[in-house]
Design a protein that fits this description.
Elements (H helix, E strand, L loop, with lengths): L2 H19 L5 H13 L3 E9 L2 E8 L7 E2 L1 H10 L5 E3 L10 H4 L4 E9 L2 E9 L7 H40 L3 E6 L5 E3 L1 H6 L6 E3 L1 H13 L4 H13 L5 E6 L9 E9 L4 E9 L3
Antiparallel strand pairs: 1-2, 1-6, 2-3, 4-5, 5-6, 7-8, 7-12, 8-9, 10-11, 11-12
Helix pairs in contact: 1-2, 1-5
Protein name: PAS domain-containing protein
Organism: Chitinophaga dinghuensis
Length: 283
């Protein structure tokens, strides 16, 4: 194994350990420090395109370059002219290039585009002494670039799903009816705030189906029409429609009132289960 192959493998291994233990927000900071150590650079930094008129230096070494503001347009033109591929400057152009203010004291540099929407960035590495970018070196850099894009893309997907889940949970928690979802996988379930209160659970959110089933059994035992509910449940679980509406659960206790209960199947490519809706009966 060549020296450059071992460096690529080291980057993959170290980012894999980081990926399991730390938050995505610190990934580029960690990766840029790792690149500096692996490639023994004299300058290493990220340039992030914040908007149409601002590109900002981040995670810089040397640190005095942090927050330096650049014009993004000539940098974009440079990237477009190179097809958004990694740019290898064994000898840095003496004038007329987009990064002359950053690289005027250096001999060699590489520019790694990270085109990961919605945040587009490049990583810049430079050396004071001339460097030779042979095939092994370039294969190492491209392996690292793919690894960076892989983790950043994955993290953006995770952040998107977390936002969707948070929005969904916020909506579900504000609905006044008690909502209980029990997945058919036997491992996952979910309740909103009114359902957590109705079933006397510690709080809303994810719950094991076994806990939900037990809590619903305890709730049913407090009803004054438990036998009727049991018979309806048998019909529900054996019917082809697999659903029921306007199902009354009666309670003697005025605090618990009575509820109109609906049970509906939830079927999709990702989810299969039952949704229970407990709506307080008026009057």
């Amino acid at each position: 194994m060549t020296s450059w192959e071992s460096k690529a493998l080291s980057f993959i291994n170290q980012t894999s350990r980081w990926d399991k233990d730390k938050h995505i927000s610190s990934f580029l900071t960690f990766s840029i420090n790792l690149l500096k150590n692996l490639f023994q650079t004299n300058i290493t930094l990220q340039i992030e395109f914040e908007d149409e008129s601002t590109a900002r230096v981040k995670n810089a070494s040397p640190t005095y370059l942090d927050d330096m503001v650049l014009d993004p347009e000539p940098i974009r033109k440079l990237l477009y002219s190179n097809g958004f591929k990694t740019i290898y400057w064994q000898s840095i152009p003496t004038a007329g290039h987009a990064l002359k203010d950053l690289l005027q004291a250096f001999s060699s540099a590489i520019i790694i585009p990270l085109a990961t929407e919605p945040t587009n960035s490049i990583i810049l590495m430079g050396w004071s002494e001339p460097m030779t970018f042979n095939n092994s070196f370039q294969e190492c850099v491209e392996t690292i670039r793919l690894r960076l894009k892989e983790i950043l893309t994955y993290s953006q997907q995770q952040q998107h799903f977390q936002k969707v889940a948070s929005r969904y949970a916020a909506i579900m928690h504000t609905i006044p009816h008690a909502l209980i979802f029990i997945n058919n996988d036997g491992f996952s379930g979910w309740v909103n705030q009114p359902a957590a209160e109705l079933l006397h659970l510690s709080g809303p959110g994810e719950q094991l189906p076994a806990i939900l089933s037990d809590a619903m059994l305890q709730l049913r035992s407090k009803t004054t029409n438990a036998a009727e509910i049991y018979q309806e449940a048998m019909r529900l679980f054996s019917s082809q429609q697999n659903s029921i509406t306007s199902w009354e659960w009666k309670f003697a206790s005025p605090e618990e009132m009575s509820y109109n209960v609906t049970c509906l199947p939830v079927l999709s490519q990702q989810v299969s289960g039952r949704l229970w809706i407990f709506e307080k009966k008026q009057g």
